[in-house]
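Quick sanity check, Beta-mannosidase B:
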Amino acid sequence: MTPSPPTLATNPSQTLPIIRHLDAGWTVAAVEGSGVPAEVRGSIVPATVPGAVHTDLLAAGLIPDPYLDSNERLLAWIGLADWRYTTTFVWQPADATNTELNFAGLDTVADIELNGRPVGHTRNMHRSYRFDVRALLHPGLNELSVTFRSPIRQADAASLELGYRPHVNHHPYNAIRKMACGFGWDWGIDTSSSGIWRPVTLESWSTARLSTVRPIATVDGTDGVITVHVDVARASDAPVTVAASVAGINTEIDLAAGESHAELSLRIADIELWWPRGYGEQPLYDLEVTLVSGHATIDTASRRIGFRTVEFDTTPDAAGTPFTIVINGQPVFVRGANWIPDDAFPHRVDRARYLDRLQQAEFANINLLRIWGGGIFESDDFYELCDERGMLTWQDFLLACAAYSEEQPMWTEMEAEAREAVTRLASHPSLVVLNGNNENIWGYEDWNWKLRLDGKTWGAGYYYELFPAIVAELAPHIGYTPGSPFSPAVDGDVDAHVPNDQAHGTMHIWDIWNQRDYTNYLEYTPRFVAEFGWQGPPTWSTMTESISDAPLTPESPGMVVHQKAALGNAKLTDGLLAHFALPNTIEDWHWAMSLNQANAISTAIDHLRSLQPHCMGSIVWQLNDCWPVTSWAAVDGYGRPKPLLYALRHAYADRLLTLQQRDGAFAAVAVNDSAETWTGTLTVHRLSFAGEVLAEHTQHVTLAPRSTATVPLPASVASATDAAVELLQAELSGVRGHRFFAEPRDTGLAAPELETSLQRVPGGYRLTVTAHGLVRDLALLIDQVDPAGRVSDMLVTLLPGEHVDFDITSESDLTVTDLANPLVLRSANQLVALG
C-alpha cells in the first residue's frame, strides 16, 4: 500500500519559518545503465531519505548485502547507472511569500525537477543547496524528482575535461566533489553509490530569515567575548532586529532596509574555560539568536559554545621545528587516532553510533580525532558530542592523496564547500585544527607528480591561499595547517623544508608498514606524527559473519575481497615473521595478525611518548572502519573492538612506564600526562621466565604534571644472561612496563598454564585467570562466544602466580569452559608453542 502524500500548507498565524521534512513517499528507479539486471530494470523501488541507492535496493531484496563475501564485485553496475528519486506532496499556498527547497546533501551529480520543470543542477556532495521554488509549486499534488548521474561516468568525463591529475586507487575521484573513499580505498569498499544522503526540507517564510549564524568565541583575560556574525535573507525591505543572548547577557542590532549582515558582540565576565578531556572540564554556554520584525519573532537559531584558545607552537629550536597544539596556554601531547566515515553509506551513522564510537575512543584514552580528508565534513551530532566530552577534533578539508585542478568549475566548488563547512563548524570548541589536505603536498614533492602533471595546477592555491584566507575570515580562533604532513614555513617560505621531514612539523610514517619491521619505529625521532599504522583482521565474529568461504583462509576469495591494501597479506606475513612463525590454521593466523598489529602500534606509541616534549603528537591510523575488512583500524566495521583498541588504552594511559634504548642501553622512561605529580620508588627487575629476580635497580622519582623522566639502568639489570628466558619489569606506584630481550619466537615461552574461575556480576561476568607460568599478552576474545560481548582488558602479561580479572559485559549464558577455550583465552605463548 502506497501512503498518501503529506499535505504541506503554511499556517497564517505562524510567524516563524515553517520547515517541512520531505522524507516520506520516495521511490528510486534506474533510468539508464546497460548493466542493470532485469529484476531491477523497470522496477520502482521504495526509497529511504536520507539514504542511498545501495541501501534502498538492499531493503527491497533486489541485491545482496554489499558487505558480504564477494558481493562488492557483483554490484559494480550500480555506480555505472543513472538513478531517479521521486516523491509527491500536497501543498497549499498561504501567507508566506517565499518557499524554498533545501537539500542538505546530494551524492553527487544531480538534476532536480519540480513538477517536470528544472530546479537546479548540482555537482558537490559536500555542499547543501537551497532553491526558491514558490513559482514552481501549485496547489494540490506536486512531484519532486532528483536524477543522479553515474558517479563513475561523471568522474571519468570530468577527468577528461579538467585534464588528468595523479591520484591513488582506480577512479579519478579528484575530478568531482564526491567523498573520495566512496570510490574505494585501501581499506574501503568501492560502492560508487548515489542518493539523497542528508535531509530534504521545504521552508516557507516571509519578510526575512536567518541565513547563517556564526559565533566566534574568544578569551580576553578572564572574560569571554562572543562575536556573532549573522547573515539575513530578505523577502522585503522591512527593518528587522537581530538579537543575541548568552549567560544572561543580551544585545541587539537593527538592520535597515537593504542591510543583510549583523555583527553582535557579547562579553561575559569570569568565564569557565573549555578544556580537552584529561585537562579540565567542558563547560558549554547556550547562545540564542532571534530575528524580530515589528513585535514578532520571525526566526531563531541556537548554538552551544565554549571558550578556549588555540595556538600552534612552531618556534624553531636546535632540533628543528616543533608542532605543538597549545590549548588555553597548556601544551597538549596529542594521543590521537584518525577517523574515517563510520559506514560506507554515511547516512546510516546516527547520534547513538557516534556516541558508541566516541566512548570506544575514550576507553582507549584518546584525546583527539583527526577527520581524514578522503571522507566527509562530519555531522553536527559528531561535533556536538565531541564538544560535550572534551574530544579534540582536527578536520581536514576534503582533498586526499591526489592532485586537484584549480581551474573552474573546481575552484568555485572548493570555495563554496569550504565556506559552508567552516561557517557550520566554527562554533564548536572541540575543533582546533583545520587542515588543507591529506598527503597532497607530500605527494607533489615525493610521488613523481611533477612529471605527470606536466605544468598543470595541483592544489597549491587551495592550501596556501584559498583555505587559509577562508579560515582567517570565518574562523580565526581555529588553527590552520596547509596539509598533513607539512613542514612549517620559514620567513614565509613554504618550501624551506620538504614535507614529511621528521625534524620539522608533522609527518606520516608509512615505510614501516610497507617495507620494514615495526621495531624500526624506534629509529624515528619526529616532532609530531599525524599518521602511522599496522594492519590486522577484523574480530573473529565480524570476519566470519561477513565471509562465508569454505575453507576460510587468508587467501580465500572472500578474504581477498576484504583485503584492500596492495600486497596486504604479504605485508602481514612479512611483518609477522620476525616475531612469530606463520600459523597454519585460520584461527591461529587471525590471532597472530591481531596480536602483531597491537604490538606494532604499542611499540610505536611507547617510543613516541617517551620522546616528549621533543615529540608532541601521536595520531594512529585509524580508529574505525566503514565495513568489515582487514585494515589498520582498532574498531572493526561492525563496531567491535580489536585487540589494538586495548593496546591503545595501555599505550595512551595518563601514566606510562616504558623501557627504551638510550645510548645503547635500556632505560626506564616514566611519562606523566596527568595533572597530578607522580612520585614514588621506581623498581626495575631483571627476571627469569620462572619469576626469579636476577637483578634489581630502585630509584626514587618525582615527575611534575605533564612531564617525563628517564632513568638509566645499570648493566647488571639492562643486560641479559640468557635473552631467551629473561625479561625486564619496571614498576612505579602500581604502573608496570615490560621489555623482553628477544622476540617471542626466539624465547622459551611455554604453553600457557592457566587456572580460571568465573562468577556472575551485575551486567555480566568476572573471569579470574591465574598464571602458573609466565604468560605474555593474555587476551580474552569475548566476541568468539558472544559477538555483542565486551571485556574490560586485554594484552596482559602475568608472572608466575599472578592473576587478572576480566570483567565481561554480556547478556549471554556463558560458562567457564566457554571462556577458557584456548581459541578464546589467547596469549603469545600459544603462537610460540606452534613454532
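Posting the structure with no commentary besides this: DSSP finds 18 helices and 45 strands in the chain.
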